[in-house]
Amino acid sequence: MPKITKIIARQILDSRATPTIETKVTLDNGIEGIDSVPSGASTGKDEALELRDNNPAVYMGKSVLNAVNNVNNIIAPRLIGADVENQQEIDKLLIDLDGTPNKGKLGANSILSVSMSTVRAAATTNNLPLYKYIRDIAERMVIKLSPLSVPIPLFNVINGGKHGAGNLNIQEFMIIPASNKTYHEALQIGVEIYHKLKETLIFRNAVASVGDEGGFAPNLSTNIDALEAIAEAIRNSNYRLGVDVFLGLDLAASVFLKNGRYQLIDRAQAYSPDEFIEYLTILQDEYKMLLFEDPFGEEEWDTWVKFTSKLGDKVFVVGDDLLVTNPKKLDQAIKTHACNSILVKLNQIGTFTQTLEVVKNALAAGFKNIVSHRSGETTDTFVSDLAVGLSADYVKFGAPARGERVVKYNRLLEIEEELSQKS
Ligand code: PGA
Ligand code: ZN
Is residue 286 annotated as part of the catalytic site, yes or no? Predict the structure, then answer.
């Protein structure tokens, strides 16, 4: 029964030059687990609290020295001596130590960094790849999982909204390889279309620099122009839209919902909720859309319900800001049929075990699960193993560019190779 002997946290940087927290857990057999936590920009209002120091004189208020201190001086003394294999107990202790519903006292960033690092240390001490150890925990929690395989990625190839420097309102324009592809085939499709898209944007005199998630961040006249550019890039590649590859959008619509109407650059007059449903229905048909994430504001439950009853048998309607990986919100969505898929983000809820509990409920209700990074990332690959361990339907790790995204795709390549050698 390996025990925790040391826990040390420190402040590091994420991919947006913003401080975040990394924690190292050491066991009595010398084994270590190190993980760091990501950070969102378009956050749902009910996410667990990310504790920042808010001192304008230091890193523009973004330093996380209090969170680091909470790990080193409050959490560590309580966990020294704990059995690292008892993850549920560890997470329960972290939740109780904080004592607030949104982890507002110690911070979800400090709590999650410890939760992830203990899982990793326990996997290593058991001589198991992380995804396999995660799967064993999931099986003990009686989560209904499909067989082990590497999920197909949703590639976010154009970054708008809060992630892009351009003028697009829609946050993520995604290409989705067909589900009959293997992971490495899907990766190749994503990469080849990504490069074609760069050529297409340059040809259209649109800027081809990249945004927070490695997708291009062009200035275009309308959001539809972005879809047109992607469709053209697909035509210029060896792939067929609607056969080999499909499209998806994360609208992060709360950002452009103003006074009950959806304001896009596409049209001077803002769309009423019903008009917006109609707009998305047309897009779905014209661009072979397979997925709409956060198509409406996070409080607009009635509009979600209407949309899901209209298109839910054709597309994945994904709740991100709507659900914030929160069991109560998920419960409401299941009861009202507000969506049919969940975006799974560890740091929205703040511990490993709670994340698995949410996935368990989502799968029991027939939801698709999509394991996701955040827009502010580190080179941590925990989410890659989480996605495989939980047999996620898809992963969302951004574009196949920028180190903090690529490292996650490369970890999936490694896992795919390992799984193929075993079978
Ligand atoms: P975020 O964006 O990490 O900035 O929240 C990702 C998403 O909305 O899916
Ligand atoms: Zn989202």
Answer: no
